[in-house]
């Protein structure tokens, strides 16, 4: 986040600057649970990447807290990555994983509602204002850099107020997903919404965030293949992490390279139109995605998964045990991620 060059790039610089094109390779490309062939499906790959919500540094938004910063340049990259991973969950929740963005067409109302949840103003559910102010309760003063666990905890708290999406955000601690805890938190969510319309099922769409440490100062190579396989799961929301004090949103991989969206671009804050529509061009990355060698990844990350239904969660549990089964705990009670041993 401290890179002066990266933090002062503008959107036009990115659109018309030179970018390394996507590699022509026979190795499979995985993007959030979808497999592509780089030789024959390049346009499909770029369409998928462009359709992900891209949240970057912004400037000239209303002061956070009334008197605080009007830009998050230099400190807000992990907060923006948190927005991106949750934004992907909302897209899956309301539009479906196969939804694609087309900038020249009228957008669906659900899409506009999702964007409005992230607009840089104090009353948006997941705005930089809400995340920064909620972070104070996690011991992070406004303007301070977050780690993956902090942003996960903040998103969990903010999701409670999102009565439209009615998600349950569960943060799995100590490398372990305890199935009973997820059952309990979704039941609490159901009770709190018991009077809501069409409230018939116990299950609430689940966003599962799992903070992990995959090494001391560098990623342990023993975890690399398992991390790759997480991007292959149909429930994948990707990974937030990056390099020390420089966060990225990782959405897939090809070969030994991770594919990611980079928030280190300062763009002007967006103001919705009077009719509620949102000028959305700058919320989609319209150039080939960034890539980095997986060994450059900082070992502190948070992996995300979305389960729309209880059947999808059961399927996730089955798949993740196959990916990295440790056998250290009763599989009916917990899924253990001892060093991404899940």
UniProtKB/TrEMBL annotation:
It is found in: Cytoplasm, Cytosol; Cytoplasmic vesicle, Autophagosome; Endoplasmic reticulum; Mitochondrion. Residues 43-318 form the Peptidase C54 catalytic domain. It is an enzyme of class 3 (hydrolase). The lineage of its organism: Eukaryota, Metazoa, Chordata, Craniata, Vertebrata. Signal peptide: none annotated. Its EC number is 3.4.22.-. Belongs to the peptidase C54 family. Pfam families: Peptidase_C54. GO terms for biological process: aggrephagy; autophagosome assembly; mitophagy; piecemeal microautophagy of the nucleus; protein processing; protein transport. Keywords: Autophagy, Cytoplasm, Cytoplasmic vesicle, Endoplasmic reticulum, Hydrolase, Mitochondrion, Protease, Protein transport, Thiol protease, Transport. One of its GO terms (cellular component) is cytoplasmic vesicle. InterPro entries: Papain-like_cys_pep_sf, Peptidase_C54, Peptidase_C54_cat. Cysteine protease that plays a key role in autophagy by mediating both proteolytic activation and delipidation of ATG8 family proteins. It catalyses: [protein]-C-terminal L-amino acid-glycyl-phosphatidylserine + H2O = [protein]-C-terminal L-amino acid-glycine + a 1,2-diacyl-sn-glycero-3-phospho-L-serine; [protein]-C-terminal L-amino acid-glycyl-phosphatidylethanolamide + H2O = [protein]-C-terminal L-amino acid-glycine + a 1,2-diacyl-sn-glycero-3-phosphoethanolamine. This is Cysteine protease. The keyword Nucleus does not apply.
């Amino acid at each position: 986040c401290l890179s002066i060059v990266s933090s002062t790039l503008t959107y036009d610089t990115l659109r018309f600057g030179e970018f390394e094109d996507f590699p022509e390779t026979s190795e499979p490309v995985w993007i959030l649970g979808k497999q592509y062939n780089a030789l024959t499906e390049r346009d499909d790959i770029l369409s998928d990447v462009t359709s992900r919500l891209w949240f970057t540094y912004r400037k000239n938004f209303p002061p956070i807290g009334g008197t605080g910063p009007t830009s998050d340049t230099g400190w807000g990259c992990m907060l923006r990555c948190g927005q991106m991973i949750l934004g992907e969950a909302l897209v899956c929740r309301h539009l479906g994983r196969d939804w694609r963005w087309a900038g020249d067409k009228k957008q669906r109302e659900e899409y506009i509602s999702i964007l409005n949840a992230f607009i840089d103003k104090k009353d948006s559910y997941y705005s930089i204002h809400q995340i920064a102010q909620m972070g104070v309760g996690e011991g992070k003063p406004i303007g301070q850099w977050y780690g993956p666990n902090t942003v996960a905890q903040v998103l969990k708290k903010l999701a409670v107020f999102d009565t439209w999406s009615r998600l349950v955000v569960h943060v799995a601690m100590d490398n372990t997903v305890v199935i009973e805890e997820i059952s309990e938190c979704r039941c609490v969510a159901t009770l709190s919404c018991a009077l809501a319309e069409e409230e018939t099922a116990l299950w609430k769409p689940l966003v599962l965030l799992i903070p992990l440490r995959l090494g001391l100062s560098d990623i342990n190579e023993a975890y690399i293949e398992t991390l790759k396989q997480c991007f292959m799961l149909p429930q994948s929301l990707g990974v937030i992490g990056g390099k020390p004090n420089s966060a990225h949103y990782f959405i897939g991989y090809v070969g030994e390279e991770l594919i990611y969206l980079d928030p280190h671009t300062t763009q002007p804050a967006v103001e919705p139109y009077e009719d509620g529509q949102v000028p959305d061009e700058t919320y989609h990355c319209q150039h080939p995605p960034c890539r980095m060698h997986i060994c450059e990844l900082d070992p502190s990350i948070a992996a995300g998964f979305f389960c729309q239904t209880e059947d999808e969660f059961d399927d996730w549990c089955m798949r993740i045990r196959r990916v990295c089964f440790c056998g250290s705990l009763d599989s009916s009670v917990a899924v253990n991620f001892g060093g991404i041993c899940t």
